[in-house]
Amino acid sequence: EDKVVQSPLSLVVHEGDTVTLNCSYEVTNFRSLLWYKQEKKAPTFLFMLTSSGIEKKSGRLSSILDKKELFSILNITATQTGDSAIYLCAVDFIQGAQKLVFGQGTRLTINP
Amino acid sequence: NAGVTQTPKFRILKIGQSMTLQCTQDMNHNYMYWYRQDPGMGLKLIYYSVGAGITDKGEVPNGYNVSRSTTEDFPLRLELAAPSQTSVYFCASTLSGARSSYEQYFGPGTRLTVT
Question: A39-71: per-residue pLDDT in tens?
């Protein structure tokens, strides 16, 4: 069965800290891995990773994929209270239509 | 563009009632999806559609039905509501091909409570 596991499930840090969120997966015929940020409502897209070892970066957020070890990390540097959210990892696998398998999410809380 | 819109935002149903959750997108996306998100959990795929007239089951389809008569609309029907269907429902869409991945755009969600 295809599976995506995120860790930690919950994380509380102080503003200015750096955090690393983990996502491991077991899927056959991997196609891509996506990160989403979910605040109060709908998930919003952060990154899509398809190739191993190539870092995607957007401001203070960055992510990298290791296809050999089957995991990805999402880093956030100099955290701000606005980074507080649930971060979701999802994997798309090759089977025709794009269908995402989501992890449970990591609830990140940034305290001032 | 409004993106993906969902109605209603909130709904309380009694056990055994039925309802339809509406989803519309104006981005001319061919793929559309329905997910549910239970508290503290990720999203689980209920049904999806790769184009008008074509639908298929996802991971948790029992108790739900869908139709896709147009590119824009993808309603989700709950028949005989049960407390286990209490959840937040998200509709999503993407312009996707069978060989590529694209980001999915999500609607604002419908919070459904069945009592």
Answer: 988 899 999 998 788 889 999 999 999 988 899
| Contacts A–B by Cβ distance under 8 A | 66
Q: Which residues of B touch A34 (CB under 8 A)?
A: 101, 103-104
Contact B55, B67 (CB under 8 A): yes
Is A92 an interface residue toward B (CB < 8 Å)?
yes
Closest Cα of chain B to A112: distance in Å?
A: 24
A86 contacts: CB under 8 Å, gap ≥ 6: A37, A38, A39, A105, A106, A107, A108
Residues B6-65 pLDDT 10s: 999 999 999 999 999 999 999 999 999 999 999 888 899 999 999 999 999 999 999 999
Q: How many CB atoms lie within 10 A of CB B45?
A: 20
Q: Find, in chain A, the residue whose alpha carbon is nearest to that of B111.
A: A41
In sequence order, the β-bridge partners of residue A6 are A23
Give the residue on B whose Cα is nearest the Cα of A95: B98
Q: What is the DSSP string of B52-77?
A: TTEEEE-S--TTEEE--SSSSB--EE
Beta-carbon-side half-sphere exposure of residue B100 (alpha carbons within 13 Å)? 7
